[in-house]
User: Fold this.
Amino acid sequence: MAHAIGRDPSVAVLLPCYNEELTIGDVVARFRETLPTAVIYVYDNNSSDLTAPKARAAGAIVVRETRQGKGNVVRRMFADIDADIYLMADGDGTYAPEDAPQLINTLLTERADMVVGTRQGVTSDAGRTGHAFGNRLFNGLYKRLFGRDFTDIFSGYRAFSRRFVKSFPAVSGGFEIETEMSVHASQLKLPVAEITLNYGRRPEGSSSKLSTYRDGARILWMFAMLMKETQPLRFFGIFAALLLAASLTLMIPVLVEYFETGLVPRIPTWVLSVALLMLSMLMMVTGLVLDSVSRGRAEQKRIFYLSMRSARAARAESGAPHAKDRTV
Assistant:
């Protein structure tokens, strides 16, 4: 493993879980074998099966989060746990714990704040046809709206720096949390990286907690809300353009008739077109004002992020010996 600091960083493995009794014991055991010095946390999200006792028996620290939803669990994890490196995965066994050193190595050598394990073969899994289409759709939409930093915004296998974790607001409540993470990194232009990893199938008897339509709609709503918060001029500009187009469609025939006859027989149409024009102007002004607010918020987020000491700086201040980057 590569190290960019004088001694090994502390690593926390984060496993949000809901009814994963069939796999969680094996996942925890494999992470303990792969990362023997890491502390493994399992946050049980109101499971009705034996997820918690099996995780505890395998050697994990188990904490219960009563607010339902992956986003709520991740927010609690990020607030509770202190470490230099955070590794987040799922408890269903679809992400291989043996790939964890590769994610950590990339985080250190690239000096990144987030490394995403993109899922190889996820779009060709016959058991996830609807999910595969949604992945292609939303990843394409993300690139158009927020940039080309990521090719798999829904991957749950990620490594984070302490800076990222402690500066991430984590507003989402459900599976849209990965989208929020990606937008946060793109907006602040944080150093990120991706590596392609194999993506496994769930074992027999285990089912996905992701609903294709319900969670797809929630993710789409999150896209809209994040666009409103990070790109308000673009967001409100779209509505302004639509209202302007509707206004002109109604207004032009009335104006043509007025210039030809000197009369305005369709008063209600004229009033409606003018109202739509005023709404269009209001939307545009709203976008301009909120764009300045959004830029100010982004600057504040960036300043707060920079105020967090990196692991390298923390060790330098603590007197730990400094070593040049090396690969073991």
Observations:
- The domain at 2-229 is CATH 3.90.550.10 (Spore Coat Polysaccharide Biosynthesis Protein SpsA; Chain A).
- The two ends are 5 Å apart (CA to CA).
- The chain has two domains: 2-229, 232-302.
